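Q: I'm a student working through a structural biology exercise. My instructor gave each of us a protein and asked us to get a predicted structure, then write a short paragraph describing it. Mine is Protein-L-isoaspartate O-methyltransferase. I'm not confident about reading structure output yet, so if you can add a plain explanation after the tokens, that would really help. Here is the sequence I was given:
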Amino acid sequence: MTGVSSARAVNLTKKLTEIGIRDQAVLNAVANTPRELFLDGALAHKAYENTALPIGQGQTISQPYIVARMTELLMQTQPQRVLEIGTGSGYQAAVLAQLVPELCTIERIKSLQIQARQRLKKLDLHNVSFKYGDGWKGWSNRGPFDGIMVTAAAATVPQALLEQLNDSGILIIPVGDDHQQLLKITRHGDQYESQVIEAVKFVPLINGDLA
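A: Happy to help. First, here is the predicted structure for Protein-L-isoaspartate O-methyltransferase. I'll explain a few features afterward.
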């Protein structure tokens, strides 16, 4: 991806550093991603605020802190093939695509998927495969994955995603209804080690019929 970080993007990454993001590669990817491209024009002036914003269809673009935090957690093992559940606007995918060789991403709302694909193409990010489908099922014929990131809150951890992890692979997922927690789950053979990271607030991960 080509382009020069804007002053607002640089200031945002400084704020992210102040509130705990340490991975410089992640900070650089955030700084190099024009967040305004992923928003409606009326909200572009809010692009570099550390807040979640609506993107239509009842969905949101996550706040930059949580995008950076989840990415930082995922990158601890330097994954080569990553699956993202919930493409949404494409913002998180754009950050990830700068950091991993191969990214697969699933979206259940067709109009959002089409827009995200166009945005990533505009940013010259071509290492991303898109799927229109139910994120609860993952993408078995493209797995197993070194890392899986879920960008919506599941009521429980989907078994299919656990099964699609490589050994030593990491799943980053928000879990819960009213009270959600971000979990980091690491696979060790047939065992899974779960670590609570922090409280979060995401739209729900829908299971079943596609929109």
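A: Here are two points you could use in your paragraph. The two ends are 31 Å apart (CA to CA). The beta strands are 53-56, 59-61, 81-85, 102-107, 128-132, 145-150, 165-175, 180-188, 191-200. It's a good idea to check both against the output above yourself.
Q: Great, thank you!
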